[in-house]
UniProtKB/TrEMBL annotation:
GO terms for molecular function: ATP binding; DNA replication origin binding. Signal peptide: none annotated. This is Chromosomal replication initiator DnaA C-terminal domain-containing protein. One of its GO terms (biological process) is DNA replication initiation. InterPro entries: DnaA_C, Trp_repressor/repl_initiator. Residues 22-91 form the Chromosomal replication initiator DnaA C-terminal domain. It comes from Pelagibacterium lacus.
């Protein structure tokens, strides 16, 4: 059995400066789209449904666009990884709505355009539609 020291465990779950900048850009973009206050994304208490959906959207985008683990995204937002997993499932279900999906695609393009010199790569979603996952 291998026991990781506290510093090793912390390094394993820390995020890079670039990932942090991308997560901050995602929070700003989602806040602008939803009218949610920045501080509400990191509030410790439960929030009204529109705020919770905004936070779930930001968590999903941080996970998808940065490649962060759910544990890392949870730490960034002050939440547990299971909360991030739930957020990702909720947002994936919401992507079935063409209006929501278009808004999410717009945020993805906006965030990836800032951090990538080349265009975002596309993958095909479960329903066969192209999804942009801004991997540089």
């Amino acid at each position: 059995m291998v026991i990781l020291h506290s510093a090793e465990r912390h390094a394993k779950h820390s995020i890079s400066a670039r990932q942090g900048r991308t997560c901050r850009a995602i929070v700003r973009a989602v806040a602008g789209m939803t009218g949610t206050r920045h501080d509400d994304f990191f509030a410790r208490s439960r929030c009204p449904m529109p705020t919770a959906h905004a936070r779930q959207t930001a968590m999903y985008l941080c996970h998808v666009l940065t490649g962060l683990t759910m544990t890392q995204v949870g730490r960034y937002f002050g939440r547990d990884r299971t909360t991030v997993a739930h957020a990702c499932a909720v947002v994936e279900d919401l992507r079935d709505d063409p209006v929501f999906d278009a808004a999410l695609d717009a945020i993805e393009r906006r965030v990836t355009a800032r951090r990538c010199a080349s265009p975002a790569t596309s993958t095909t979603g479960a329903a066969g539609e192209a999804r942009h996952h801004g991997q540089c």
